[in-house]
Design a protein that fits this description.
The complex is a heterodimer of chains A (202) and B (292).
Chain A (H helix, E strand, L loop, with lengths): L14 H17 L5 E2 L12 H10 L6 E3 L1 H5 L2 H9 L3 E2 L7 E4 L24 E5 L2 E11 L7 E6 L5 H10 L6 E6 L2 E5 L4 E4 L3
Parallel strand pairs in A: 2-3, 2-4, 4-5, 5-8
Antiparallel strand pairs in A: 1-9, 6-7, 6-10, 8-9
Chain B lengths: L13 H16 L5 E2 L13 H10 L5 E6 L6 H13 L3 E2 L8 E5 L12 E5 L13 H9 L4 H14 L10 E3 L3 E3 L9 H4 L5 E6 L4 E5 L5 E3 L26 E5 L6 E5 L2 H9 L10 H4 L1
Parallel strand pairs in B: 2-3, 2-4, 4-5, 5-8
Antiparallel strand pairs in B: 1-9, 6-7, 6-10, 8-9, 11-12
Helix pairs in contact in B: 1-2
The chains are: A alpha/beta (202), B alpha/beta (292).
């Protein structure tokens, strides 16, 4: 199969500084769950991969991190693009993946199928990057846990069905579990496995 | 210049940085858990802060302002050389003022000033495993962490009380992070332990020789282990800093002569200097205007 031209375009203009900038947003986001971060550099990720999701892939993935993609992403230019720019291999096995990308509007795969680490090595777990419609509108949720002073509000539009239920089960596994990044265009927020999500009152 | 070896920004290559960055993200997601990472050789010996240096190199960007302290001091060999290292390989701004810094790399102290949101404190850690001196086998300590089996640590603290009448551990005092993992806070004096509790700053710990990274997110409960009848206590000093008169700070003893003369001064040099600049003066201090 010929390599699609849009697999080769894009990428970080300045890989060293841009990947550092994206990582720092991600580090700060993981340390303060629920805070919305905005990625400044356009990496030209092919549709349907969002800007923030594409930037996260390029900043953190490489030949050490198998990447899992949904069926729709598999059929797009995304596998070629991720492999070309980051060197990561695309895997069809959810349990092998260190990163998984899920575009907006797809049925959420069960978190339990992804690596959640072992009790001895809970860090050997997947990070799921899930695209939603918006992060400033829609369902109001309340977060609490490490990184949050008391509680922090979060609004998500287009959160996949069954997300909060799956999250509760994921959190019960602690210290095992997956970590989630919700992305919407150039914006994202992080949900490390320690976070407790409840429906906001009222 | 052209025949000199050239390095990537912040010394480490990009693949190494990505590997360390992924470890940092997992460390933040599992507060207090030690994430193994592929520690690299650095242009300084193990034991000189290679773990902290690798973390700093992986998180630092051109807009960061770096402060490095060694036992609280900005002007000791380790602090000066690591600061110079990053000024050279990353061309970043450096400072000695705690509140001007975005990244503070530290060896064995937490600054006296309360850290702010957005600051990152990077600790250099010699032995990251709090259970290591009780159980030398890594396979065993890993299982103990997995099963949350920390009874041995309480036995050790109890033996302190049985032998000495009080908990004699004064530095690297074990803490429990977010109610789950028992963690070695690196050899900071136990005086500094309360500063880790619900801190506004992100705290990252790097052990280069032992190849471990761990973290405490901001606003996270960090509880020093103790007993109901022997609660955790910090050191107290019976006199203020001799130079700036500060109380409630951690003091270093400085020998003045060979006749038994000594003084106790702030271990945090930046804190001491700022107080003296504001006109505070201790019993052996000189008023700033007079000194100039």
């Amino acid at each position: 199969m010929a390599v699609a031209a849009d697999s080769l375009t894009g990428g970080f203009a300045q890989p060293v500084y841009d990947s550092q900038a994206v990582f720092r947003l991600m580090m700060d986001g993981m340390a303060r769950p629920g805070t919305v971060k905005t990625v400044a550099t356009d990496v030209g990720a092919p549709a349907p991969l969002g800007l923030a999701a594409g930037a996260i892939a390029l900043a953190l993935c490489d030949h050490d991190t198998p990447v899992w993609l949904t069926a729709a992403l598999q059929k797009s230019a995304v596998p070629g693009w991720v492999s070309f720019h980051s060197g990561a291999t695309i895997t069809r096995e959810k349990a092998e993946a260190r990163f998984a990308f899920i575009e907006a509007g797809t049925a959420l795969p069960s978190f339990g199928l992804f690596a959640s680490g072992t009790q001895e090595y809970p860090d050997r777990s997947a990070t799921l990057v899930i695209e939603v419609a918006a992060l400033d509108d829609g369902k109001a949720l309340t977060l609490s846990g490490p990184g949050i002073a008391a509680t922090r509000g979060m609004r998500v539009k287009g959160l996949p069905d069954g997300f909060t239920g799956q999250w509760t089960m994921n959190r019960a596994l602690f210290p095992r579990g997956v970590d989630v990044v919700l992305t919407a265009g150039d914006r994202f927020l992080c949900l490390p496995r320690t976070v407790l999500i409840t429906l906001a009152e009222g | 210049m052209s025949d000199l070896a050239t390095y990537n920004f912040a010394y480490l290559d990009e693949q190494t940085k990505r590997m360390i960055r992924r470890a940092i993200l997992k460390a933040i997601a599992i507060p207090g858990y030690q994430v193994p990472f592929a520690s690299r050789e650095m242009p300084m010996p193990y034991g000189w802060g290679t773990g902290g240096v690798q973390i700093t190199a992986s998180i630092i960007g051109p807009d960061d302002v770096l402060k490095v302290i060694d036992q609280g001091a900005d002007d000791t060999t380790n602090a000066v050389s690591i600061r110079a290292f990053f000024a050279k390989v990353a061309n970043v701004a450096v400072t000695t003022h705690t509140h001007d810094a975005s990244i503070i790399q530290t060896r064995h102290r937490i600054p006296e000033k309360t850290l702010l949101e957005g600051q990152v404190l990077v600790y250099q850690v010699p032995i990251p495993e709090p259970l290591r001196f009780l159980e030398p086998r890594e396979t065993e300590t890993r299982t103990m962490h997995a099963l949350e089996e920390y009874g041995l640590m309480h036995v050790k603290l109890y033996e302190d009380i049985a032998l000495n009448g009080h908990i004699a551990t004064t530095y690297a005092y074990p803490v429990k992070v977010a109610g789950r993992y028992v963690m070695d806070p690196s050899p900071i004096p136990k005086f500094d332990n309360p500063k880790m509790h619900l801190s506004e700053a992100l705290q990252l710990f790097g052990a280069g020789r032992e190849k471990r990274i761990y973290a405490i997110p901001p606003h996270t409960a960090v509880v020093s282990l103790d007993f109901e009848d022997h609660p955790f206590e910090v050191q107290t000093f019976d006199r203020p800093c001799a130079l700036c008169g500060a109380e409630d700070v951690y003091l270093d003893e400085v020998i003045l002569d060979d006749k038994g003369g000594r003084m106790f001064v702030c271990s945090d040099t930046d804190h001491c200097e700022e107080r003296r600049a504001c006109g505070c003066v201790g019993e052996l201090g000189v008023k700033q205007e007079a000194a100039e």
